[in-house]
Each structure stands twice: as C-alpha cells, then as structure tokens.
C-alpha cells in the first residue's frame, strides 16, 4: 500500500514539474516531428534551443520577449526542449544543427526566403533579441500597448533636433486624426502628449513619468484606469528604449 502511494506521489510531482516548467506563454513547442512543418509555413521563426524545463534569468528574459513579440503577427517564437536523459527527446535536432549543450540557450532565426538560419551571437537580453529579429527579418516588435507607426515617430522625435521637434509632433497629430481604430486612437493620443511633455521638460520627463505610473498601478484603481495606465507604461517604456538606443549609438 505504501509503495502504491509513493508511486502516485512521484507521478504527481512529475506532472507538477511539467506544469511549472512548461513552455513559455506565447512560444510554440517544437519537436523532431513538427519542426520542419512549422518552420516552413511562417515568414520568420525565432527558435530557442534549450534544455527541457529551463529556468533562471535567461528563461525569464525569453518569457518577457515572448510577450513583446506577440504584437508582431508575422513572427513566430518557438522553443525546442532537449532532454539529456531517457529517450533524449529532440537531441537529434541538437545534433542536426551542431549545437553543444554548453551553448544553451541558443537562438536561431529561420526566414522563409533563406535556406540557412541566422545565428544569434549577442548577449541574451530582451533588447538584443528584439534588435536581432528587427534587423534580419525586417519586422517591428513593440510592447502590447504600442503602435508601430507611432513608435517610429517617437524614435524620429527623440533623434530630431529641437528645431525639428514640432514638425514630428505635427506628423503624429496628423496620423492621430487619420487613425480610425479606437485602441490605436487611445495610444496615439498618449504618444502625442508624451512628445509635447518631453519637448517642454526634456527627456527626464520619461523616467519620472514611468516612476509615477508604476506607483499608480499599485494603487486601488478601476480596471479601465489600469488598462489605460498599462498602455501608457508600455509607450513610455518604448520611449525609454529609443533614448537608450540613441545614447548607445553616440
């Protein structure tokens, strides 16, 4: 009887481990049978090769990137979990691409118009993965609350001389008037207001506003306000990214 209970306990633990350490939300799990079928049907697929049930800082970065990448419909994020023991699931894929387990997690970008994948060689950071995909696949990746056209204007605004700032703001206002989708109108209005505030108060406004919005999100607020503040925070984060990118390029 005790042995039966022990077996049940072990099975339960294995299921629990699988549940806790399963695929990242937003990523598709691939194996030896599905790999080529899935890859061939998408314009761009970023694949992470890693040990099964990965965890830690690099896995957290991957999970955050998956959330961000969900805004781009033409990009599929996938992962291949390679088992070290038992049947050694997907170890054949590791061998096929000549990967060493010491290199995990390892990223490759598969593009529909190219025979060979592009290998990611940088430091595993969310911004680095975003830049890698954007550069080689030509795809915009933004946070869920962001809008591609307004994001591009935000970057243009931050890279413009002070004398040209009003011109970019005017472009954003024109785009806002032409925008029909209510969700994009809400976001567009936030972009325009942030640009005007940055013009008045400088780039430090972004950092201070991020701090303020984060505090507000911790308060008891209505779901409607929480949704609006979350969109605002996503857009502010995008501005922060462009400011950081500009400094890195100097």
UniProtKB/TrEMBL annotation:
Sorted UniProt keywords: Endoplasmic reticulum, Signal
Entry-linked InterPro entries: ERp29 (IPR016855), ERp29_C (IPR011679), ERp29_C_sf (IPR036356), ERp29_N (IPR012883), Thioredoxin-like_sf (IPR036249)
ERp29 N-terminal domain ranges (all copies): 24-143
Signal peptide (residue range): 1-22
Statement: the UniProt record of this protein carries the keyword Repeat: no
Organism domain of life: Eukaryota
Pfam (any one): ERp29_N
Ranges of residues in domain Endoplasmic reticulum resident protein 29 C-terminal: 145-239
Gene Ontology terms: cellular component: endoplasmic reticulum lumen
A Gene Ontology biological process term: protein secretion
Descriptive protein name: Endoplasmic reticulum resident protein 29-like
Organism: Actinia tenebrosa (Australian red waratah sea anemone)
Name of the gene this protein is made from: LOC116287260
